[in-house]
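Escalation from tier 1.

The customer reports that the assembly of two entities below gives different structure tokens on two consecutive runs. Tier 1 could not reproduce it. I'm attaching the input and our single run for tier 2 to review.
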Amino acid sequence: MEVTPDATRVVHPAAEDVREPSRLAPRLATLQGTTLGLIDNHKRNADVYLEELGRLLQAHYGVARVVTYRKISQSLPTPAEVLDHLARTCDALIHAVAD
Amino acid sequence: MITHAFTHAAQQRAQALGLPAHPVVVVEHPLASKTRDQAQDLARHSLEAVVHGLVAHQEAPGRASPVRPPPRRARASHLPVSGTVSAMNDYLYDQGWTDGLPVIPPTPDLVAAMLEAAPLPAEEVLGTLPPRDGTVTVEKVASNAVMAGCQPAYFPVVLAAVKAVLQPQFNAGAITTTTGGAAPVVIISGPIAQQLGIHSGTAVLGSGHRPNATIGRALRLTMRNLGGATADTMEKSTHGWPGKYTMCFAENAARNPWEPLHVALGFALEVSIVVVVAARGLITIVEASQETGLGNLETLVSAMRGEGISGYYYQARGASPIVVLGPEHAAEIAAAGMGRHAVKEYIFQHARMPLGSLRDRGHWGARSWPEAWEHRPDDFPVPLVTDPGKLIVVVAGGDGRHSSWFPAWSATQRAMEVIEAPPERGPRAGAPSPCG
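Tier 1 run:
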């Protein structure tokens, strides 16, 4: 037998946070002469993929320099100080791979 | 860059970060099992999309805002629901707020009764729980504890478990998003275990005991509803294991031949603690033929070797496998003159795999272990942990010639919290328990 009032309330059990949207960093006007940062999350083949990507971007789009950081583990975030350094010294960052 | 199997998870995470329009390049899943040539080919095929994301991607207008810290006070909203308990369960399930089993609808009166047992005020913010980054308040945890079927008396233990999971080294976000199926194992050690009737004996890792079932479940519901641990969104376990529902037990103090676990971990005798470890599963062994404690350990350790055990590739983080000795095995080990430290030392020395057998297996490509091991020969015996102190050895269970162990997930460290007692309050007349 189920006995309940016809209408009741429940205390919302889940997250009610609504994150205000942030603005993406402005896109690059060109890749010519830029420094590209590649973050390899240590998943198998992330390095292979990123290395080839970096090579192609240098060969065909004029990227001047590629900087690669390999995480010690795919399951740990990139250290904040590493991200700060890459953000300061690179024009763009690419992270791989969510797998 | 992501593979297509992670599209939804990536969208959810981007939303949680306030960057819903973040450019993402999607490639065929899986990348990890591709050959080198195939992986390079994927890079060539995704080049145009990458360039677009760097130079041409347009997002909807939005104002820039820095990441804000969570509010110091936040009360949960109250949602109108109607109908029978079945209908309310259907509603809660359809919202994605349950684990698939029926729940106790968290009505305000039941949540208030739960909060009576809290050592902290309802609006207290304990932190944010990744990957959803939901704000964790005492009240929200109480709502989930009601849903789980907790008695109010259990709530201090639930809060301690949630606080443990929020410790940064536990790495709660990765626990949820890993394909490795990690679930928290909650061990209680201290006087509160007996006070609350948290089970530690027969079928301790099974079912049938309300504190065990509901405390662990409350933690999991909290991780689900505030942390976003829902399957096929940010929860990406290939399999998972039943610990994803609940896994909570107490040390069998009466049959433990050594010092209490919490004392061994550095806490005072009169204190009660939770120890939370993210585990990948549970393995049980029988040893009914050997007559010595050493024989028991030999058989147990034989079940702690295997190329598919992720810990053999991931020692750098310092995860804590849990060994649960059945009381009979523990008694024999103690009779052989071994204490908990000696057991850990034995396991450290003998739970090992030849480096050559790990090569190109398991997590070889993503291994994270001491640099010195890279230069070791193939017969180098790789240990499961780099330090015996990482192991947790606890006595629990009933009669019988069995012991068990929980392989730890990799990129995490154990978390411990003292269970705080609620402040002294007068009895609250008519305070209901979650089951009426």
